[in-house]
Amino acid sequence: MYRPSAVPWSPGAPLGQHLEERGVSRRDFLTFCTEMCAVLGVAQTMIPRVAQALQDIRRPSVIWLQLQECTGCVESVLRTAEPTIGDLVLDVVSLDYNHTLMAGAGHAVEQALQDAMNANKGKYVLVVTGSVPLSEGGIYTMIGGRTAETILREAAAGAAAVVAVGACAHFGSVQSARPNPTGAVGVRDIVKDKPVLVVAGCPPIGDVVTASLVHYLTFGRLPEADSEGRPLFAYGKRIHDQCPRRAHFDAGQYVEVFDDEAARKGWCLYQVGCKGPATFSPCPIFQWNTRTSWPIGAGHPCIGCTERNFWDTMSPFYGRLPGVSGFGIEQKVDAIGAGLAAGALAGIAVHATATVYHQIKRRKATGELPEEASHG
Amino acid sequence: MTAPTQPRAPHWWQVRARSEVPGARGKFTWVYLWGAPLRAMHWVAAVCLIALAGTGLYIGDPYFSTGGEASQHYLMGRMRFLHFVAAAIIVMTGIVRVYWLFVGNKFERWPALFPITGKNLRHVVAMVRSYARMTPEQQPHFVGHNPLAQWAYTAVYVAMAIMVLTGFALYGQSNPGGMIYVLFNWVNAAVGGLQNARLLHHVFMWFFFIFVPVHIYLAVRSDYIERGGIVSSILTGGRFIPSDESFEDYEATRAVTSEWPAAGHPEQRP
Questions:
Q1: What is the mean pLDDT of each run of 10 residues along chain A (376 residues)?
Q2: In CATH, what number is assigned to the domain containing residue B93?
Q3: Burial (CB count <10 Å: 0-12, 13-18, 19+), residue B163
Q4: Nearest residue of chain B to residue A279 (CA atoms)
Q5: Record: contact A251-B176, CB cut-off 8 A
Q6: Which of these CATH numbers, 3.30.70.1660, 3.40.50.300, 4.10.480.10, 3.30.43.10, describes A246-322?
Q7: Is the ipTM of this complex over 0.90?
Q8: Helices (H), ranges, A173-231
Q9: CATH match of A61-235 with 3.40.50.300
Q10: Contacts of B65 in chain A (CB under 8 A)
């Protein structure tokens, strides 16, 4: 659809002009604005305002910090086989400082980061992927000789808005799973003095980042968020309540093992551990890779990656309930429960037998029962 | 035509009237313990518990699937509907029970739920000892619940509260921002996430699976040994006590009466 262009977005030029230079027609641009309005859940009458706000913006400075992470979020958000206008917007706004994309290296780019922060103090958008390790003075992630915490605090101090992208920036993701050796935490655990928008997921969906930025550029503030800081337009509903396989859940039609007849028919993945009922995410609607597919659509249960501490609380990924550890062995809660219930029943049987035996003896002693009970 | 047989001693299982047997004590008194609302709550909750456990087991682990097209079935939907209806009813009985904690008689009021005095705690030990040693004649006598039983029932109320809280916390998720979500979502945060709430809801189901058989057994056992009609007290509201017996939670002098059935609550008698 759209190819990366040799024409850079020149400073001072509005976005509308830049998109025109890259071959985006007015019709395509308005289609994109309509899509964004649908995603954000704002009224159709807002489309002209969104279009106006977008086409008038001058290139905003976006600083993209990559801390303790795997770069998967950047790959997911910025790379698609067939870039949409949304990808272009992301592409063009995220050029100031991004480890994966920038061509420079060494002291020069660290100086460029300082320059960008000083030049746009209080005006730039700070995007963060990756967690912040705090153990042992934060030595587990050092960039240019400074800890991730120092870099984040400095960058957040001058930011107009902070967007935490991905599960690492959300709560620490896999590196914060028990026992969390590096003491990894999310952005909201460090930046407490200004609102942080959390685009949750491992990795998150690029459209959510785009739509959040569009909202910020149009209305001048971050979209409404839940208690985790996740924008409600995207994370306001459970996967379970938007799932195309929901009819099979309600009907009582479940995949028992992968590759059974039910799996081929596309039945509900509840029995193989789907965490859709516990996960708030727009995956069924937005999908991935230019709306090609998504985990449940491909026959794999949801692992709940948009929820806090999902590596600990959502595992085992192929079981309904968390495992229970105790007595030195991993036991399923049902095995323990059934064992205790069976023990109680056995205890009742033994106790009842003993009670009847003693009571008969006692009643014989009081003469209530004949001394020699006849059984014939 | 056979010759009439010699009268013989009754078999050990054959019934004899208590007055005929040596050692039978004289007068029995009927005491009124459980008010009608409490008895109604007990049975409504019992029926609801059976419905909740049956449907809850299916919701937690659907033990069979339906065939054909999804449009032809609504099995899980119906299970969940029944679960939610039974839950709503049991919550209502819980609300009435809380009200009754303040207006019930002394066996039903909230101080009765917490037998924490040293004497009561010693009675707990005595009850455990008598159950373990098969010595019912040594156990302390109570007209109402003995302290061990009372602690078990108090634990049931606590377990029920946990089930209600985690249940509503899970139920609210289908409508974020709705009333149930707003009122109960804090529970999920308190227990460390939705999956933990789900686990707790599941674990406490096993508490009831263990409690119910033990409860039925000990009630029937007590009736079998004491012959006071304790099982029927949850239907009729009262039980028989020997008039010459003294009780830890009941004044014997006031219990001795020739009235039958006794009128009104034990406390209200002269």
A1: 60 79 84 86 87 80 88 76 60 68 83 87 89 94 92 93 93 93 95 91 84 82 89 93 95 92 93 94 86 91 93 88 65 82 93 90 77 51
A2: 1.20.950.20
A3: buried
A4: B194
A5: no
A6: 4.10.480.10
A7: no
A8: 206-219
A9: no
A10: 252-254, 256, 262, 267
